[in-house]
Amino acid sequence: MAVYLVFVMSWPAEDETRPPGPGSLTETSREGASSLSLVAALAAACLACAVGESLAVILGVPTWSLAFAALVASGLATFASALSEPLQLFRGGEALGSALMLVFFAVIGVSSDLVGALSLGLSVVPFLLVQLAVHVATLFVLGQASGLSTQAMLIASNANIGGPATAAAMAATRGWGGMVQPALLTGSLGYAIGTSIGLATARILV
What we know:
The chain is mainly alpha-helical. The protein is 75% helix and 0% strand. α3 packs across α4, α8 packs antiparallel against α9 and α8 crosses α10. The radius of gyration is 19 Å and the shape is globular. The two termini are 28 Å apart.
């Protein structure tokens, strides 16, 4: 998984080297950030996560918690923009989120036991490599045939392999703000569909 994340994080994509212009989302969110706006952004994020988790549990779809949290966060942002200037209340939130995403990636790296995984499951590595190679080849062939951007294909790949959390983290870290919510929704939808198909297949085969 760590090798795969390095692969998708380092793959070049269009418009990635273009610096943010004046008034862009990244530029605007980092200018004039105050302790109040940072605390408001963090509190809104915690509220969105709590509500999303509760909705997922109540509706009986725990794997959709991140998708519900993304929808709640969008609602909070829309509500805040109606009360004040756009991004004024949560100014600096994107920079704070990017920093927390780096912490998230660091935790993934620290918690992984590469030596133990190689010693216990070395025979599985060739199968995983073939699986990932087929996945990447199929994704890029079909993606280019349908006219998808490289960003969209990388996010879709990460949502498929790593899930909504790592896909959204990659989108935020690489500065693709418009891809964060699609990453969360696509990954959560993949969880729901994949879990159902997996359970059905297991019931047939076992």
